[in-house]
Amino acid sequence: MAQGTFATAINCMDGRVQDPVTEWMRSQYAVDYVDMITEAGPTKYMLEADGEALEALQAKVRISAHNHGSEVIAIVAHHDCAGNPVSKEEQYIQVRDVVEMIQAWDMNLKVIGLFVNENWTVETITEV
């Protein structure tokens, strides 16, 4: 088991959203570190991914949960996403769909959906 406390985020590769998400999760969940799993437009990626790609992503989440002791995972969408250039409303729908997907993995994690807005602050979409 790693030293310190961890949370997990499936986040966009866009560097503008890394710090706001890390800071928010550290503050909200009193963790030392956030394991960041990144993809361009992660909600779109996950909703369109084939089984092999999702299995690879699940393996990364499993490492965070089992080896680092993470108890919470966030799926993150954001304003001005080049990898998923759809409306904020559509991104909210996608985040909710991916939260359900992650819950179905049955990894005993709290799953949250986040959106980083045009001011680069974090909004909570859903928590389960």
TrEMBL record:
**InterPro entries with a match to the protein in the record:** Carbonic_anhydrase_sf, Pro_CA_2
Q: Domain of life here?
A: Bacteria
- UniProt-listed Pfam families: Pro_CA_2
SUPFAM superfamilies according to UniProt:
beta-carbonic anhydrase, cab
Protein name (record)? Carbonic anhydrase
Q: Please tell me the species this chain comes from.
A: Pontibacillus salicampi
Q: What is the lineage of its organism?
A: Bacteria, Bacillati, Bacillota, Bacilli, Bacillales
